[in-house]
Amino acid sequence: MPLTNLNQEQHTSATCKAGHNLTIASAGTGKTSTIVGRIGHLLNSGVKPEQILLLTFTNKAAAEMVGRVATFFDKEIASRIMAGTFHSVSYKLLKKLNYNITLKQPNELKTLFKSVYEKRIFVNIHEDAPPYDGGYLYDIYSLFLNSRYDDEFSDWLTNRNVAQGHYLDIYEDVIDEFNVLKKEYGYVNFDDLLLTMLEAQEHNEFDFKEILVDEYQDTNPLQGKLLDGFKPKSLFCVGDYDQSIYAFNGSDIGIISSFDDRYDDTQVFTLTKNYRSTKPILDLASKVIEHNERVYEKNLEVVRTNHTHLPQLLAFDELYNQYEYIAQNISKSQTKKEDIAIIYRNNSSADGIEANLRDLGIECKRKGGHSFFDAREIKALLDMLTLMINPNDMMAFIHLVEYGKGIGKAIAKDIFDALIKLGHGNVIEGLFNPDDSIKNPYKTNIIKNEQLGLFDDFIEMGSVARFKDIGLDKPHDRENFLSNAILKHPKLSVEGATFLFNFYLIIKELKRISSPLNALKHIQQSQFFITIVDLLCDRRAKQKDGTINASIKDSAVFKAKRRTETLKQLSRKHTNLKNFINAMVLGGGELSEGGGVNLLSIHASKGLEFTEVYVCDLMDGRFPNRTLMSKGGSLEEERRLFYVAVTRAKDILYLSYAKYDRIKRMDFIYSPFLCEAGLIKK
After folding, report:
1. pLDDT of residue 675
2. Architecture of domain 8-100+192-271
3. Per-domain residue ranges of the chain
4. How does DSSP assign 452-465, residue by residue?
5. What is the per-residue pLDDT for 448?
6. DSSP label at 271?
């Protein structure tokens, strides 16, 4: 049983009485085993699996814990446990409650937000405080939703930056229009999932006997409200305040530190035995993190007694020499490449390291900067599948059609609105059976409102005669397509219209396909998708003088094909299109490509462990990152990031810094954390 493998501290925590229980589990102390043991204890005590809710920071962590429960209990029993991230659990519960939800990637709706924002003209601009751009305003609003308690956006924003209050009328009008559009098209992003779940909690009872929360230190106020909204009869939280590193996403370390103040019947347990790292590695990490204020006292005990490698400091005269040496050292290492990690504070650090590893023929995979699902060809494939379910999905339409030469986001939005008008609310009807009585589907009128940055807009019609040579090899499709009034947009080029014709053809083809795998095969072979991939690979291979590097393009084409094949492999497990798309959206951020050496941002390394670890670019300014500190971060959080990075190492740890960057002609001084670790004397 899961309890038999626990040490005394873990066992005491896992078998505690129902109530409000917090376990402080430092890096490598076996928190996963403790949580699995707690679930086993609940099941043995007669709690039904469907009465257990397990909330984790990643879906991968939830799957691992449920999988371990399944080794002790029947798989069918384990599968009935509700488990996942706050977002995925909210999605599952809302689906059970018959909410109609169309999920979008976290940053996907930023395009819609920016299209609303870009209609505004700021006429009275403060010289010392220009308005936020659309993308940053979107991120700021998301941070507000996750980190607020009871404030209004206007108060929250002006408290952060009083000068931005000058633009509040426009900002709030953009946000209002954005929320109306989302509601109109049924779009839901991750923030909306939690907000919708909060509303559902007001009208529904959830019979969970106990809620377990992993990585509790990274809970943000919105998630905290959601947790309280479940009205848990018993709460079992596991976390470590020294690993709270998500303040940029709204997480509040005050939530874990005030746990025993907020609940009357609190019990706090501490796991002190570290099973992961050698004593020299743990001693180094402890020396640094002890400079932060202690919230709950803990004294870690190293279980492992063997060690042959002391943490090693590497100092270099020049930045590039650092990356070159790390790659060469890895090439000589006896450690399996999959058990090696290079961890960095800034994503730019990974570029030089990756280039040197590739140069030596060392396979590597990168996670934490750009995921598999950030690749534009993958987004395009998923957008095509989305249109198969909901042809009126404006965002999917814009993301695809904007690739046409001379089209872009604005014209793509014009074309979408025109198709809606021609099809009386249905894009497919507008594309294949347009209302011929509508001669100008592009005419619009916007009332002028200087205060909100709105001004009149009007589009004159263009002639379709310039498109007479399109689709000559497909006469029937050509005739239907050329009669469509969407071609009357004056800024639509011949290349853009040809691209739209290829879009018309693949949409027609997909109307008779239902399985995700077959759909992906057809899209991959379509001229429409081939054009998109060719454009993307040209962009990736374009040099400073504007020419295309043929070898780089060949490599880009190969990678795009490999990504497409990977998505097809993932689709084989699904027969339902909507379930497949939602699975990709919810789990997308946790997937990475390839094998070999792991290149990880510190945030992406969280929860992982490796035999050999390199923590690079330990220069003051880069780590700690002074720029992010000036934007609301803190030295304490940077120190926690250092602690997380170092404690990923089991046996071998290298810490490195450089004194000079010859490209930027910049001198560096070592990180203060190296002094705190005792590796450098001030």
Report:
1. 95
2. 3-Layer(aba) Sandwich (3.40)
3. 8-100+192-271, 105-188, 301-371+592-676, 374-574
4. GTB---------SG
5. 58
6. E
**Residues present in the chain in total:** 682
CB of 670 within 8 A of CB of 657?
yes
CA torsion sign for 504, 538, 568, 68 is negative
Poorest-pLDDT segment among 166-180, 365-379, 540-554 = 365-379
- Provide the token pair at 510: 């997909």
Has residue 50 got a pLDDT over 90? yes
Show the tokens assigned to 20.
């409000």
* HEC-encoded secondary structure of 605-669: HCCCCEEEEEECCCECEECCEHHHHHCCCCHHHHHHHHHHHHCCEEEEEEEEEECEECCCCEECC
What 3-state DSSP class applies to 211?
strand
Domain at 301-371+592-676, CATH class: alpha beta
In the chain, the N- to C-terminal Cα span, in Å, equals 52
- Beta-strand pair 301-302/273-274: parallel
CA dist., res. 43 & res. 48, Å (int): 6
Residues 211 and 237: their CA atoms lie apart, in Å, by 8
Cβ atoms of 286 and 300 closer than 8 Å:
yes
Contact 444, 415 (CB under 8 A): no
- Provide the token pair at 536: 């993307």
Tokens 């909410």 found at: 99
628 vs 635: CA distance, rounded Å: 10
Within this chain, domains 8-100+192-271 and 301-371+592-676 share the same CATH topology? yes
